[in-house]
Amino acid sequence: MAPVLNDHLWLPNEILTAIFIEASPCTLASLACISRRFKTVAERILYSSVHIVDSIAPESPTPWKTYRWCESVLKRLSHVDTMRRVHIRWQSDGSPPPLPQYFVAFCERLGESLHYLTFLDSLELQLGPANRSCSIGADYTKGGAQSYTHVLVHFLAAHPGLHHLKIPDHHAALNLPIAALHQLSTFRGSPDTAASLLPGRSIQYLALNGSDSDLIRVLPIMAQCAPLPILYLDLSSISARIALLRSVATYLPTVETLRVRLALRHTLHYAFTGIRILTGLSAVLTAFTNLVIIDLSSTDVGGVGRADSLEEMALCREWHRACPSLRRIIFPSESEYALHQDAWSVQMVQV
User: Fold this and answer.
1) Cα–Cα distance, 42 to 46 (Å, whole number)
2) Contact partners, residue 150, CB within 8 Å, separation at least 6
3) Helix ranges, the chain (H)
4) pTM value?
5) Number of helices (H) and strands (E), helices first, in the chain?
6) In sequence order, what are the residues at sequence separation of 6 or more whose Cβ sits closer than 8 angstroms to the Cβ of residue 344?
7) Which candidate, 185, 267, 197, 264, places its Cα nearest to that of 232?
8) What is the structure's pLDDT at 233?
9) What is the DSSP letter of 136?
10) H helices of 235-276, where?
11) Res. 194: pLDDT tops 50
């Protein structure tokens, strides 16, 4: 019998990469077991984008997924040039988490691993149950440290290639050198952190969390220090009152896409019933000059009543009269309407 040639041995790594990149993580893990060459190509793809969610509970208080990833990174430092996206989230099941001291060793290991990833393009750190002690490797201070200490500043300054940063656990300003993170274009976090990052950086996409009063307080600062106009603003993690939207329209009038979770019980008058309560938004939308898309899908309308298409269509026309630049509206019902040739129509959901 003629010998069977291993065809894959004749393929350059670029072609193998183009083939493997379409495979699922499970398939890549299986491919990595076939040969050393397959392992090298598969692992470079596997480690290029990592999303880790660790659940912290009294019966399982250890972020094992994060720890195992850290150990794997330290064994594969030859791959760090391909590690571009790291998103790590620790979440609690609602039970009291372990004492903050418990997480110190894991935070130090995480900090050690991240320091090697100098080619990072996107980073998310949300270490909820540990946010009293995590400081990317800083020593724990008895009595409760801030979410992240000055070590975070040094860490970010050493990663100039970051384009996308998410640190929702940090609620204070970051005193970074003006030249640091000069490529940053999107940020998710607190209003105070966002205001400190805007000067000298090309951030045009913001997703903010916290209280609407905090954002109202820093909006004037953001308007003064942003070198480029903010085009995308996501407030779906904030329970927003009308006062906040007025401030956004005043200080960030260039917003083109706005995602917002309205606090209906504290926001709009009840002269209307059902979804028509949202008619009160018309007076606020008038102040937006460039708004193209408004997304209210995160708004809870419990107790207000279910919407129907006729009411939503009426709101589309009314809001468009108030804000002529509007072209797309997503309601709390998640129904989406778009303007085509001066007529509003509901968009069919792609299945």
Assistant:
1) 6
2) 138
3) 13-20, 25-31, 36-46, 64-75, 104-115, 150-157, 191-197, 212-225, 242-251, 282-285, 309-322
4) 0.83
5) 11, 12
6) 313, 316, 317, 320, 337, 338
7) 185
8) 97
9) S
10) 242-251
11) yes
